[in-house]
């Protein structure tokens, strides 16, 4: 069976208006007719978080096709992806020029459907279900190849870990082409939970007005979103249906985890830190809200079906996090020829992250490739950044041998005591880990701190 095993017919709310079941059924039937053909095809879905994109996503998988999802890309990104992967079909909003090598072949669920004007080339492996890109518009396109089994396994595991069911109402708080965002969609659909289709930012007032009107029960968001919500004084009191807030997409400072944990607990709900990777379809670990305060700083246990071990652990029990499970990708793809491949990697993912296990709970300490050796001591920049984050944003970048710079946002004085405590614990002199203030830490388009730019600033001094 190619489709996700949906618990019931998918129920969508577009904005604040429910999409009738008859409309969903008619849309899926139209997809079946529009994408029918004797051969497996790649369908590029470029429309975003509306009914058209989701219906074509589900319909394409049901037909045994593969999908490439990219939410409203700019023209340069679109053209690079289409040139690299040569999809047989493209679904877009119809407000951009027709890309080279394609022509309009009709309308599907209210969006424009394009078809290729020449043969795509290599055949597509029978098990390939989805391509999730891992790079932006710069450089050669690269995507994770996911199978139908990957999607189904992770959707079911996440739904079970979060206790999702037909009584819940999810919302598309994240981009459709982000593995975490797609996982939110899949996990709700397999649980039979209705899904509110929102294109709004979860930090906007309109988003929360929509959440209140539609009875949203759970929210998935990245650390930057929770930081912004904290800065605005957000509280769950105005949302009686909200029972769960969960976080993935990078580490959130323990102080903020505790803050949102107490907010949600006081509201009768819970806060759930998670840990994942696109290469594992999405999420690999989950900390049950009932255990949050006992294991603060942990990302919990593996989702059902997954296993975690540490490789190369040192005397302190710190090693590389290795995940095993049925949601581990088939492999990578940088072009059309790669779509013909089956599994090229085992169901084992070497994450490149360092961690330790305590009473079965995983603590993620930072990237393996960010380790520093300062005065013969191993230093983890991510751990230092988390320690300073109780004061404000901070980032550690190496400079010359045996030295690094701790950039902090704003003035240096509020950070000084925490910085000195880190130096004392590590047994390092101040000149080895210099403290430097900057009005604002540079960030990438996704909101992450731009470490490359900070290295340039550090070298310029």
From TrEMBL:
It comes from the Bacteria. Pfam families: AMP-binding (PF00501). Residues 23-332 form the AMP-dependent synthetase/ligase domain. This is AMP-binding protein. It comes from Kitasatospora purpeofusca.
